Amino acid sequence: MPDPNPNCFDVLIAGAGFAGSLTALVLHRAGLKVCLVEREKHPRFAIGESSTPVADMILRSLSEKYDLPWLIDFSRYGSWQQAHPEVVCGIKRGFSFFKHVPHREFFTDSGHDNELLVAASSSDTLSDTNWLRADVDAFLVNKVREAGIDYHDLTTIESGAFEKTWRFGIRRDGRESFVEAAFYVDATGGGGLLQQLTGAGVSSAAFHTHSFTLFSHFRNVPRWTDQLRRAGIGVQDFPYDPDFSALHQILDEGWLWMLRFNNERISMGFVLENSDARFDPVPTEKIWDDLLSRYPSLRVLFQGAEIVEPPGRILRSGRLQRMLTPCTGRGWVALPHSAGFVDPMFSSGIALTLSGVEKIADALSEHRQNMKALQESLESYEKGLTESLRLMDCLVAGCYLTMPHFGLFRAWSMLYFAATISHEQRRLRGDAPGYFLNADDPQIREMIYSSFGELRRILQQPIGEDVNRRFTDMIREKIAPYNTARLLDPSLANMYRHTVAVL
């Protein structure tokens, strides 16, 4: 039967990345009439990202709650490969960190003093994944089409006004038309459209972290484990192959990420601290070349590397940190990746975004007929997102402060893993998910914020072994209530074999 109101919807979503498409799918399953608008066309380039156990838990929950049985396959590497090997991904067994000293080949010792490996899963089959976003996003858009959801690509929103409902002016193929919707969800990943439509503001002023990135996709990049072996550095103690992980090469100025995919493409990018704006006037290529000249083991990695299409060149971001204020209002809400961002240090982007999809979908499906209850639920979402970004900012800022002192970095990073363990356990118990990283837990907040104050205090003095030891002892004591993985156990020599409960 023809739709009597083909241009009227319950929800319009702008942005068909994985979050926008998944939100459209779950709201459609909840019985809402949805329109999804995308200004580009899939497949399109998006930088590689990696999932975490929390992200996998949310995928499984959404799959069950909204009757999307195929979605569960993407929650583990093994089931992903069995069900959809054509959607390219990579194995992510955990987080790997290797500290480089300027103008020296990478070196370490039998105690793995310049290494830190934290396994998040017990096997390749059960592991998290590195997402080739172009493939994942295109797959989900096809699922949107299969579901019969109204989807319009190569379409821009030119205007929008809200009275009792939204009326959007859109442009496609040079033609203008309009769409009406009771509610608007922004999944564009920026905030610019929301500024235009609602007057919301975007600012970086509240963040401690001050970083930007240079990045691309490459091929013909040798495996880091092979390079270690050629240098005579033992890898037999590693709990997993670090090339199958979120691999972090830690520098004094920042770090280099390496996310490898099954098709041997690899996502790589430098993320650099820039609070003194020293990199602002320097051309992108010079920054890249200078870093490779400064760190000889990284220079070897890139000797035969080729940039692949897309994007075909090294891209450069502005400052990564941003927060939209407000991130919800009368008749609208921004998904987390539109509302704010800190830094890719701990691969939090997919999990935080999925936690927002979960909360927004629940609010819209449960309160669609009660605007007061809906607005209260979304205001709670905004408060939680703001507190979660604040907590993540503190954790990441501490990482940049400690990068020149890897002993401090190893200890500091355990605060993130302790908070993650706490949040995972909360979900596994079946408790309400609350804020991301348990940012609504006063003890978690006090643990991290007080440690940050202590870190800044000790960095005012020379850093020696005694300072490292005292700081490590302090962090060990603070994380003790959450430490089910023997974090900072000296006998493990910075090699942690499994930090998450079996999913």
Q: What is the structural class?
A: alpha+beta
Estimate percent helicity.
Answer: 25-40%
Range of strand content: 15-25%
Radius of gyration: 23 Å
What number of structural domains do the residues give? Answer: 3
How many DSSP-defined strands? 23
Mean pLDDT: 96
Write out the CATH superfamily name of the largest domain: FAD/NAD(P)-binding domain
CATH architectural group of the largest domain: 3-Layer(bba) Sandwich
List the total number of helices: 14
Tell me about the biggest sheet?
9 strands, mixed
The separation of the N and C termini measures 44 Å
Low-confidence stretches: none
Q: What is the CATH class designation of the largest domain?
A: Alpha Beta
CATH topology of the largest domain: FAD/NAD(P)-binding domain
Question: Which descriptor suits the 3D outline?
Answer: globular
Report what the structure shows:
- With 503 residues, the protein is an alpha+beta fold.
- It folds into three domains: 8-85 and 132-201 and 322-375, FAD/NAD(P)-binding domain (3-Layer(bba) Sandwich), CATH 3.50.50.60; 90-130 and 211-316, D-Amino Acid Oxidase, Chain A, domain 2 (2-Layer Sandwich), CATH 3.30.9.100; 405-496, no CATH class.
- Helix content is 37%, strand content 22%.
- It is built from 14 helices and 23 strands.
- It has helices spanning 18-29, 53-65, 77-83, 133-146, 192-198, 224-230, 284-294, 296-301, 336-339, 349-367, 371-402, 406-428, 442-458, 465-479, and strands spanning 8-14, 34-37, 49-50, 89-92, 94-99, 115-119, 128-131, 150-152, 155-162, 166-172, 175-186, 201-203, 211-219, 246-250, 254-260, 266-273, 306-307, 315-316, 322-325, 328-329, 332-334, 340-341, 495-496.
- The strands form four sheets. Strands 5, 6, 13, 14, 15, 16, 17, 18 and 23 form a nine-stranded mixed β-sheet that branches. Strands 1, 2, 8, 9, 10, 11, 20 and 21 form an eight-stranded mixed β-sheet that branches. It has a three-stranded antiparallel β-sheet with strand order 3-7-4.
- Helix 1 runs parallel beside helix 10 (349-367), helix 2 packs parallel to helix 10 and helix 10 (349-367) runs antiparallel to helix 11 (371-402).
- The two termini are 44 Å apart.
